[in-house]
Structures are given as structure tokens and as C-alpha cells.
Design brief:
The chain has 322 residues and is an all-alpha fold. The protein is built from 15 helices and two strands. Helices cover 78% and strands 1% of the residues. Keywords: Cell membrane, Membrane, Transmembrane, Transmembrane helix, Transport.
Length: 322
Amino acid sequence: MRSLVRNRVVRRVAGTVGTLFGVAVFVFVMLRAIPGNQITANLGTEAAALTPAQQQALERYYGLDQPLVTQFFSWLGNMFTGNFGYSARAQQSVLDLTLQSLPVTFELAVFSIVLALLIGVPLGMLAASRTNSARDAAGQVVSLAGLSIPAFLLATTLLSVFAASFGFNPNGQGFVSLFEDPLLNLQQMFMPSLVLGFGIAAPILRTTRTAVLEVRSNDFVRTARAKGVPERRLQVRHVLGNALVPIVTMTGLQFGYLLGGAVVVEQIFSVPGIGRQVLLGIQQKEYAVVQSTVLVIALAFVIVNLLTDVLYRIIDPRVRAS
């Protein structure tokens, strides 16, 4: 048993290291495939007026004169020592920028997941309670809307309607953290969380409906109903309780996606999250910012997946024994 657990842990660690290394190589190569570099991004059209000596001096300053393999392993080695690089745009180290933006994105992801679960799980159970009925059709419509409406369209619509009709635009006041002003922070998080939560609620709704229908067809549900178990207790404890594994898995995947995939919504609502940090880094061709931040996002995604795996092994002993 111990050897089985040890082998599973070794496979997990090896898979994690391999995933992170693959992400690092992919981001490094893709950034250098984009035309331009940090010199042209900073100087713009003035870069054409540089003399060869000035060009070489700047390339030496930014480390662009070194072979790509040397640049890659130099950056990777610096990350292991806590040196994530430096952002000339923000005049801060990338580590400090990440420590500021990651909690913001994490807060946004938590609020979005909570809203998604509040929307998706009840509607999924309601749709599964009577298939091919009006409530099932309504659930399918909500799911289809969540999947098909682009986040940028819903975000700009909400922002325009609330700002123009109700004069409500807390995001225009400059972002404040939850500890500085909890009320204003919650107001600033409301609309972006609603946009992201509505989109994530769609796959959670579909997963809940499918899982609940599968569990409801089992013999123990019919037995419990025949024994007179109250319907609400039957649905919550016996049906939903046994349908949690796919729901938790889908929720974990969506939460991991939010850690790096909320860049459009963060940009529209001026939320200084980690996705917006990557976007600004790409615009300024700041290789260290993009590479290090994407690697942090990948690490966070892997950690969320591992925690999800642990969670559904706790929920379902059958998975734990496999």
C-alpha cells in the first residue's frame, strides 16, 4: 500500500514538473516568435534611429545578445532563487507585482465560483428533477446563454447599463483591496464576478444535471424513496451527495481557468489582477514579466487540480480506494 502511494506521489510530482517545464518552454518560444522586443516596445519608432553600437549596448543590457538557450536557463535559474525579473514599466520587481495581483485574481475567482455554484447547482438539480419539461428547457436556455454570450460583451453591457442608468461604476474610482475598504471592494468585485460566474455556471449546470440524472437512476434512490425518506433530504443528501465528484471536478477546473483566463474582464473593469499583468507585459514586450507570471499561473493551476483531486477522494471513498 505504501509503495502504491509512493508511486502515485512520484508520478504526480513528475507530471507537475514536466507540465511546468513545458509551459516555460512554450511561453519562452512564443514570446520570441512575436515581432519586436523590449527595445522596440520602449522606444517605438525611435528604435530605427539607434546606431549599431547603441543597439548592441541595449541588447547587452536586456540580455538579448545571449543565445536563446542561455537566456532560457538563466531566467529559469533566477526564478529558483526568487528573482522573477524586473518590470521597467512598473518600476518594480515581477515578484512584488505578482504578490500584489495574485490575491486580487484569487478573490475575483472565489466570488465568481460562489456565484456560479449558486446559479449552476440549483438550476441543474431543478432541470434534472423533470426531464423534457419547461424547467429542463429553462435550464438548457440558461446554460446555452452562459456558453454562447462572450464575456467581453456581457461585461461592457453591464458596465454601460449600470453606469448610464444608475450611476453605479465603483470600478472607476480606482481599485481598493478588501482590507482597505471592504464595502467598496465588494462593489468593485460585483460586476466582474457576475460576468465570470454566469459563464462558469453553464458547464456546472450541465455537469450537475448529468450527474444528478445518473445518480437518480440507481437502485438506492428508489429504495430510499420507497422507505419514505423526505424528498428534500433525498435530493440533497442522497442524490446531490453522490453526484458531487463530477461537480467538484468541474468547479476545480473552472477555478484554475479563472486564475489566468479572466484577463478580458479584468481589463474592462480595471481590476489589477494577474491576467491584466500578463497583458500589459505582452504589450510592453517585457519578457520577464510574461514568462514568470505565466509560470506562476501554471503552478497555481496545478495546485488547484491537486487540491481538487484530494477533495473528491475525501468526498467519495470509492475514488480513494482506486
